[in-house]
């Protein structure tokens, strides 16, 4: 157990490992508060995979304080309505974020690829703190004393060490820092793998009643379709025991898309990615001077679009505390509270809602699907239940609850 010494305001550098959305948003917020930051990123450039496409209301409100939200809107597409739909019959349950327009300035899911946030945040950071993002820096070790924390990284085949006051591990799902520190990461890996492709094909011109966010049940398996500004993202799970190379093969992808919309074949593909889905949470988010955030701290199924949102909410919470510490507030108590607040958000809200979404959408028994559809239609028919469902699925309740945790 490391006892934390007293911070020395403002000049204490915060080290951040990982230039994903979580690390970069943390760095930008601290830099804007006048705190020195260094971001170490093992890749040679920013990642360009689309990955997340949904930005929820609280995240948009937080990012607006950094001046990023207006630009995200220019690059994205708001989706105020979203639906579960039976492909063959057209029966649907349509949710309407308009019902919670009194709760947020952003009553919709903004569909916008994660790389847009990463690119905007990195550019803003470069303006605020030029040279603070170091690419090609693979962090292999971290160590800490009462007064500081060091990261050892390999760059250009040379080993370097950098020292700071605090370190945010935003190094993603396979976090080497979490592993090196021996922090437990209990949970489960869902049995089915998931597959997502991106195509510029205009599905909405060929399929009736498409909304920006669509979860379909069909006789040929569940699939999802999200409309960002420049593409449709279509996701499904391959049959169990499929070989990855088969799932990724152009023939199988084209056949699946043609089943969804025969008019479009052959489809031009902008992205295609297979990924495993987990539900896990770190046993603690604070280990002395080292703080876990984002995917390094918690993983959930993408059903609902919560991973990046939850991670950005983590670092707004955490950087508020780091800014207070730079002004002289005691670190230990604030970091313990960070774990209490954001761990409970991960477990009580993000895990429970994403897990319910995942299981509902994967239901293969037609009778149970119909029952789930009827349940959702009943929720929609009752304005109070409809609002409560939206408040959970927009992560508004989650964010408010976690901020209230003592
Ligand atoms: C298909 C798909 C769809 C998704 N959709 C959504 C969605 O709609 N909404 C949503 O909120 N979330 C969604 N997610 C989840 C979201 O993508 C993640 O939660 C998000 O990327 C987490 O951000 P992060 O910054 O914590 O981690 P990452 O984005 O993984 O970034 C970690 C960074 O750390 C770097 N790194 C790793 N190890 C080291 C090291 N040793 N040294 C230095 N650097 C290192 C990596 O190179 C990387 O740049 C989706 C995920 C997938 C796969």
Mean pLDDT: 95
Strand runs, count:
22
The radius of gyration over CA amounts to 22 Å
CATH classification, class level of the largest domain:
Alpha Beta
How would you explain this protein's 3D organization?
The chain folds into two domains: 14-55 and 114-187 and 279-362, FAD/NAD(P)-binding domain (3-Layer(bba) Sandwich); 77-111 and 191-276 and 363-401, D-Amino Acid Oxidase, subunit A, domain 2 (D-Amino Acid Oxidase, Chain A, domain 2), CATH 3.30.9.10. A hairpin with a 4-residue loop joins strand 9 and strand 10. The radius of gyration is 22 Å and the shape is globular. The protein has twelve helices and 22 strands. Helix content is 37%, strand content 24%. The strands form five sheets. Strands 6-5-15-16-17-14-18 form a seven-stranded mixed beta sheet. A six-stranded mixed beta sheet has the order 8-2-1-12-21-20. A three-stranded antiparallel beta sheet has the order 3-7-4. It has helices at residues 21-32, 57-64, 69-75, 114-128, 176-180, 244-247, 250-260, 307-326, 331-362, 366-381, 383-393, 396-404, and strands spanning 14-17, 37-40, 54-55, 77-79, 81-86, 92-96, 109-111, 133-134, 138-144, 149-155, 158-164, 166-169, 185-189, 194-199, 213-217, 223-227, 232-236, 271-275, 278-282, 286-287, 290-292, 298-299. The protein has 406 residues and is an alpha+beta fold. The site of flavin-adenine dinucleotide has 35 residues, from helix 1, strand 9 and helix 8.
């Amino acid at each position: 157990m490391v006892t934390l010494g007293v911070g020395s305001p403002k000049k204490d550098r915060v080290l951040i490992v990982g230039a994903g959305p979580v690390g970069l948003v943390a760095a930008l917020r601290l830099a804007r508060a006048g705190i020195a930051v260094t971001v170490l990123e093992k890749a040679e450039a920013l990642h360009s995979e689309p990955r997340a496409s949904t930005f929820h209301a609280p995240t948009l409100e937080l990012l607006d304080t950094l001046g990023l939200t207006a630009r995200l809107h220019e690059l994205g597409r708001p989706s105020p309505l979203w639906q579960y739909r039976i492909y063959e019959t057209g029966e649907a349950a349509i949710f309407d974020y308009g019902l919670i327009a009194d709760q947020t300035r952003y009553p919709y899911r903004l569909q916008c690829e994660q790389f847009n946030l990463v690119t905007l945040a990195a550019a803003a950071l470069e303006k605020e703190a030029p040279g603070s993002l170091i690419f090609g820096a693979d962090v292999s070790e971290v160590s800490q004393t009462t007064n500081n924390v060091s990261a050892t990284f390999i760059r250009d085949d040379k080993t370097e060490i950098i020292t700071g006051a605090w370190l945010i591990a935003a190094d993603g799902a396979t976090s080497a820092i979490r592993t090196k520190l021996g922090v437990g990461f209990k949970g489960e890996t869902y049995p089915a793998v998931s597959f997502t492709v991106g195509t510029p094909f205009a599905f909405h011109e060929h399929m009736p009643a498409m909304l920006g966010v669509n979860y379909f049940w069909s006789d040929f398996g569940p699939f999802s379709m999200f409309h960002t500004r420049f593409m449709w993202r279509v996701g499904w799970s391959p049959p169990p025991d499929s070989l990855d190379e088969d799932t990724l093969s152009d023939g199988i992808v084209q056949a699946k898309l043609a089943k969804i919309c025969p008019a479009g074949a052959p489809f031009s593909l902008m992205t295609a990615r297979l990924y495993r889905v987990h539900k896990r949470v770190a046993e603690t988010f604070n280990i002395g001077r080292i703080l876990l955030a984002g995917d390094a701290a918690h993983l959930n199924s993408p059903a609902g679009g919560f991973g990046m949102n939850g991670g950005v909410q983590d670092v707004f919470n955490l950087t508020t505390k780091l800014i207070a510490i730079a002004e002289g507030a005691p670190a230990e108590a604030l970091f313990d509270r960070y774990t209490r607040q954001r761990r409970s958000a991960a477990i009580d809200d993000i895990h429970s809602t994403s897990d319910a979404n995942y299981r509902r959408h994967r239901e293969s028994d037609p009778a149970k699907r119909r029952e789930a559809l009827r349940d959702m239609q009943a929720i929609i028919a009752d304005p109070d239940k409809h609002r409560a469902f939206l408040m959970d699925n927009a992560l508004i309740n989650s964010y408010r609850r976690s901020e209230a945790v003592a």
